Amino acid sequence: MGGSRIVAFSGAFYWIAAFAAVAAVVNGAGIVAIFRYRERAERSLPYFMCFAAGVLISTPLVLALPNAVGKNPDAGFFALGGFLFMFFSNKVIKYYTKEETLAFGVTAAEGIGIHSLVDGVVYTVTFSVSLLTGVLAGTGLVVHEFAEGVITYLVLLEGDVPERKAAASAFVIAALTTPVGAFAAYPVVSRLGPSHLGLVLGFVSGVLLYVSAAHLLPEAQKHEKAHSMVAFVAGVALALFVVFSRTA
């Protein structure tokens, strides 16, 4: 009985697979763009990050976290745990990147790889809750994959990795880890009851809040461009439009 649940994939699985695959493609597109058109890709980065941050900060606050608390009243504690997990993970990565040049590139890329793996898990959890939650979270994550591919390639270059090797390594580290995380998490998440799924969704909400508010927005503001905040507002507006159009 348990085995049949893994073989007979639900409709959610195909959405998870589609978004995970698109995420890998978009990430790869970011690497190709920075490899071939470095100046143009760097100019576009703040807009991608701001738009993704707008979507990702709205989704947990207006949809994912309320949904999680509705399934389990303790989900808020898990949301805090997800935020703190990302916060302290980032601190550990930053601590190790103070080492020599090669260590900087490798350690930063390793951190991005872990982050991409978590992204894949987020796809699985959010689509397991509802199609709306999955599409909104997935849209923000897919958009930010472009920036993530670019950043991974650049940190490897800063670690004195040759250009072609940096491009290939960035694809493996940042692009392929997302579908791996999604597919590895699916057999576990698909077996969870509503109460436990609420706790996992709470944790994921904390991860999304950290990625948007403490990672993407500050990074975008370092390289702020004219109208980059318009991209952020557009991301928020898109998330709100989709939520209200589905609940109206």
Overview of the molecule:
Helices cover 89% and strands 0% of the residues. The termini are far apart. It is built from 9 helices and no strands. The longest helix has 34 residues, at 38-71. The protein has one domain (11-247). It is globular.
Low-pLDDT residue intervals, each spanning 5 or more residues = 1-8
* Helix and strand composition category: mainly alpha
Give the percentage of residues in beta strands.
under 5%
What's the count of strands?
0
What's the shape?
A: globular
What is the string of SSEs from the N terminus onward?
A: HHHHHHHHH
Assembly type of the chains comes to single chain
The residue-averaged pLDDT reads 79
Radius of gyration: 18 Å
Q: What count of domains describes the coordinates?
A: 1
Tell me roughly what share of residues is in helical segments. over 70%
Per DSSP, the total helix count is: 9
